[in-house]
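Worked example 4.2. Below are the chains of a multi-component assembly; read each line carefully before continuing.
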Amino acid sequence: MIARLSAYERVGRFAAIAGAALVLLSVMLPWAYGKRALDDMTYFFGPSPLQLCGAGVAAVCLAALIAGLVALPGRGPTMLCWNDMARVGGIGLAFYVGAVLVAVAVATGGLVNVEAGGWLAFGGAVLAALGGLTLPDSPQATLSHFLTPSWGQIAAIVVAIASALFAAAAAVNQGDVEDFVVFGVWLAAAIFLVRASGVFAWLSLAAAGNRQVLVMAAFVAAFAFPFTQNGSDANMSVAAQVLTFAGTAIGLNIVVGLVGLLDLGYIAFLGAGAFTAAVLSKSAFATLSVDLPFPVVVVISGTVASLLGLLIGTPTLRVSGDYLAIVTLAFGEIFRITMNNLDGTDGPNITHGSNGVPGIPNLNLFGFDFGQSHEILGVTLTRHANYYMLLLVVIALIIVVFTNLNHSRIGRGWVAIREDEMAAEAMGVNTFALKLLAFAGGAFLAGVAGSVKAYTDTSVSPDQYVFLESAFLLAAVVLGGMGTVMGVLIGATILKLLPEKLRFFDDYRLLLFGALMVLMMRFRPEGIIADERRQLEFHDEDEELAEDVETELVVHQAHHNLEGGKRS
Amino acid sequence: MTKTAKAAIIAAVAASVALAGCGTRDESNSAGGDTVEKKVVTIGTISPLTGDLSAVGSGIRNGVDLAVKQANASDAIPGWEIKIEPMDDEAKPDTGKNAATKLAADDTVIAVVGTMNSSVAQPVAPVLNAADISMVSPANTSPALTKGADLNAPVRQNKSFFRLCASDDKQGPFAADYLLEQGIKKVATIHDKKVYGQGLVEEFTKAFTAGGGEIVAAETINPEDKDYNTVISKVKSASPEAIYYGGEYPQAGPLSQQAKAAGLKIPLMGGDGLYDAAYIELAGKDAAEGDLTTSVGAPVDSLESAKAFAEAYAAGGYAEGIGPYGAYSYDAANVIISALKTTLASATDAKSARAATVDAIQSFTTTTAATGDISFDEFGDNTNQVMTVYKVEGGEWKAAYTGTAM
Amino acid sequence: MTPDLFFEQLVNGLSLGSLYALIAVGYTVVYGIVQLINFAHGEIFMMGAFGAYTVWLLAGSPTELSAAAALGLLLPAMILGGILVAVGTALLTERFAYRPLRGAPRLAPLISAIGISVFLQEFVRLFYGRIPGFPDSKRAIPFPHIEGISGNSIQLGDVSIKMTSVFTVAALLICTAFLWYYINRTKTGRAMIATSQDPDTARLMGIDVDRVIMSAFAVGAALAAVAGVAHGMYIGNIDFKMGFMAGLKAFTAAVLGGIGNINGAVVGGVVLGLVEAFAGQVGDTAWKDVWAFVILILVLVFRPQGLLGAKVVDRA
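Applying the procedure described above to all three chains together yields the following structure tokens:
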């Protein structure tokens, strides 16, 4: 059996096996001299959590290498892409161990403090990566051709979502910058490893067949998140901001992702919602303080924002195209200046000008005080955890609205407008009304997010709603993937979480942001999570991709038919 | 199994055996550092460390750092080591609030010095108040922070919030009195529509008109704009004897330069946001000559304690200058450290001493701080409101008058 | 409003308008040919100003020059330096960010342009000041005093007109004349007209469209650089974010005049400057910028082809 392998590959495979095994063994040795580096990698036979993470990847890599040895074409298990896994795993290991060594050097002042175990691991990882590179590509994984019973699919979805929750909790709980970076590198390696195996393709099929389960599992996981943060308000504060940002970005996604209208002043709608809620609140600074139940305030805030959307949309949507981008930008500036001027000297006193409205009291819904910590199931849920839960409910509503619109007649009309407005109009699509609806609808969602933001932040002032924030919202949509909910959630998380965790590169944040926008447009304009239609649109010359998408659809369809057939 | 793999495993085993001999090194490493166990108490700072205002924000951090270093060197609180945890707020309320929640979650944090911007203090103060963490502000000038929305019926907003610098309702009138004393009766006001600038101009206007002066023009600028000629022409036609500007030096400098170039050769006066060498650089030496600013505290060369601070700061080797609030943040840290001397003496951990520290700061008084006397009134404002008028003479800020605000 | 005050605001408006007009030409030329809103054009203007300032620094920061030396040597050298930097930046962005996106959906180049705009601002903010001997670029940098222009003024009765205003307006007039000659009388210029009218036919006629697009970027950048120098002298300082607002206003001016129409850009710029000056004089200065943007929206609604008529209106 071994004799059939080419000599080149044989050397490579065994080198890789040796390398992965070396990494696996080396976690039993200390990697660093000094406890301060990462999570204390100074013990013999007592690997630290981060070391164990690395060992996990090494073990999977090793298993894949051995399985690949047995799995020759036409024989043995070819359910997963063993060779691809091994290669990606090896490269991931090299990056991970490299990151550990750099982190140790940074934390303790020099590579001198890397112990022999660390060097051994690095050598092993590089060996595994080099060895892995010699392996031939795997044949396509056959996993997706197997029909798994539906309980199996559901279980897989639950496991996947649970690991995502676990990974997210572990990531935000990494206190130090070095720990966070090393964990991030490890997580990326693990994700690429799983992707290479072909499991994702199978999972996405399973997910497509069990949408409700997926959505339910995702929300249960999101609700479970605060319980992993026992009493830590700081992380929940960031999480609440991520959700507000994501909710607004999903609203923007209707306008940009579905209809293809570029809005550069979108933050104004978030601001409109926030200011409305603040002005109506019981703060001592509120000018129109009225005693309304919170859900009513939310609806009013959304309505005010969508009225603004109509106000700006009605005249300008007729002149489509690039003009709109600049008009919306101008509108964003008008909004900010107006909020600044409604202070009693340059206009009626509504917003207190640049002071804004501070001291917004905490919400109290059905006797549940959002300002207090609550003990639930033995876990302390802090103030921000309360608001996080509330925001989750709001986001859930926003996502429901978004997906239903997207898959309705209206959604198809929007996409038609994006693809070719003239043609859409000729086919009887009422383009103006649909565009206006998108504008007002997106604004409504942002306004709703804003109303909760006002209470979460306890103060609202005009200087929070500047152009740069609009640009960041757009970046979240572009980075994550235009037209997709998942992508925008990921984009929003990246853009809000990374700056909080990586304070040291704060000064370079905008520089990287600018470069990222250019590079994304150049190399992956469809974003991290691509909308399939969108991907084709951006790569219309790429025939291979078209075929891939086609095959996927066919497989998908086949599954569907089979399942349908079984049921009937 | 191939030879390579065998060899590698043998090597690994050999290495682990060889290294086992020095396995105790790690233990001794950690034990060595722990012989004199000192409890840790942390003072946080929240100020802009990146962005436009980072120079001023870094001055705030450095002032605290200096005080903490001195206290640790003299073992000011026996059995305790003081640490500093500087946080960046980017001059943004959102980021500031995150920083505050982060500090509040840290059990060793007992007090915070900050923030620089009033708009950031608004969300930060309640967060710290809820956790009983004292907040001593060196720089927030908005009166609403201590006295609430209605200055005529003041209500203390946060029990744990204290402030050392003079608020707008002290600084504006001080400038008004000075101008009136100089015989200037007609003033044009300009501000940037930000919390600080607008507040300052409003308080100035009240005091100036009450003192018999006349505001001949009240204008605003957009801080994003670079060209102020329209406003200057408009102001010029009202022929004022001075301009009172509410805002910060990045706009005030060019404003002064453009005003003088347009033939409006009258002094421009502003608040402590102008008190920076960069103002003179931006306005140009000739244009800035005669311009005025009020700044909190007595001039550095008049107080012994202030001089000592300036020397210690210079010797500290900080990359950034003291800035307008460095002395106040140094004092703020020392106020906290003095309070800690009593509250931590009997405490087992920092968290349990938080509430007592708030009370200790409330009743604290001194006469030897870098900025003179310090004690707090029922709102948390500093009762001593010494202020100085500085004037540009020969391309430098020179103290022109020192007095106490009402 | 007294006549003196009226005249003074007129000069203010003309000076500001000339700056807008010089920048607006860049938007309009590029838009006319590739239908791209070069959102980063404001930053090209900023790069031009920094380029000119750098020349002054490299010349040893001369402060005590005679008027003849300042006007005859220093100023031309600074303008040339500014043009070199601005044109270089514009061509680089065209080559590496816009050209690969030709034919992509229209959102792509616009988003890319926003990215470039942020990138250039941050690049200058972070790195310009790190060059040894260069001033801190995180805050505004005072622009050098050019003897003979800065600080001088012409007295007309009670009204004094700053020489920097005169310089700014003169710069617009000279540049417009040059531009007219370039577009209508040179081969490249006529190729530009041809390409903007029908790119495919122009290509068939043997016009190198890539080159034409590059010249459009270059011409716009050169004028923006002149505006950068004029801005430095008129306003007195330069900083890394000076291009954002100026670019936005200049774009408004280009739309006002009719985007794609070069004369329109000049007229639109001057009109916008005047509107701002008089809106500030008559009304509350706090609402000044709102007026500029309201005008933009009104023009788009009621006369989308602009004051002088746009070449391309409904290209979505």
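Take a moment to check your reading of the output against the notes. Residues 7-243 of chain C form one domain. Confidence is low (pLDDT under 50) at residues 312-316 of chain C.
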